[in-house]
Amino acid sequence: MKLTISEIKIAILGGLIAQIAFEAYAWLISPLVFGPKLQPAFLVIGLFKQFAGVTPSYAVAFTLHAIIGVVGFGLFTLMFYKAFRGRAILSGFIAGLILWFIAQGMLAPAMGREFMMGFGVYTQSSFVSHVGMSLIIALFFHYRFRKDQTAGA
């Protein structure tokens, strides 16, 4: 699958928009609905301790997770958006579901946490955030790519 520079820029912009929405959700909405704040920087810290033997500061881990959210989520969702031929809801949901499973089903156990963290409230809120981010990105693609098509017509 070939990506153009323009598509990559749109993916990163979509990732940035979704990352800002995620932070609002993680710190403000998740505690009201589910109880815990989502702080994935602790997952990054734990993985670095486990596999690199170093403990990054919270600020470094937070920044690294945010960069992954902006660039990684944007590009990953773009691949599904293109594979599913612009079906925003389907591509966003599937991309988010996969990213949620990677975080909770693979990375969390890699640092010693229970598989899917026992399917507790943190995992449920994490599902909402991963799928929500990818849906925001895919819907942004839908808007931008349609806008670009009509501007060129």
Set out the fold topology.
Blueprint: H1 5-33, H2 41-52, H3 58-83, H4 88-110, H5 121-152
Helix pairs in contact: 1-3, 1-5, 2-3, 3-4, 3-5, 4-5
What would you report as the Rg, rounded to the nearest angstrom?
16 Å
**Uncertain runs with pLDDT below 50, 5 residues or more?**
none
**Separation, N- and C-terminal Cα atoms:** 25 Å
- Calculate the mean pLDDT score and round it: 94
The total tally of domains equals 1
State the helical fraction: over 70%
Could you tell me the strand content as a percent range? under 5%
Largest sheet: none
| H-E string | HHHHH
- Helical segment tally? 5
Given the C-alpha coordinates, what overall shape results? globular
Structure notes:
The chain is an all-alpha fold and 153 residues long. The chain has one domain. It has five helices and no strands. It has helices spanning 5-33, 41-52, 58-83, 88-110, 121-152. α1 packs across α3 (58-83), α3 packs antiparallel against α4 and α4 packs antiparallel against α5. The longest helix is centred in the C-terminal third of the chain and has 32 residues, at 121-152. The model has no long low-confidence stretch (mean pLDDT 94). This is DUF1440 domain-containing protein. Keywords: Membrane, Transmembrane, Transmembrane helix. The chain crosses the membrane at residues 12-34, 58-81, 88-107, 127-145.
What's the quick description here?
With about 150 residues, the protein is mainly alpha-helical. Helices cover about 80% and strands about 0% of the residues.
How would you describe this structure in keywords?
80% helix, globular, mainly alpha, 153 residues, 0% strand
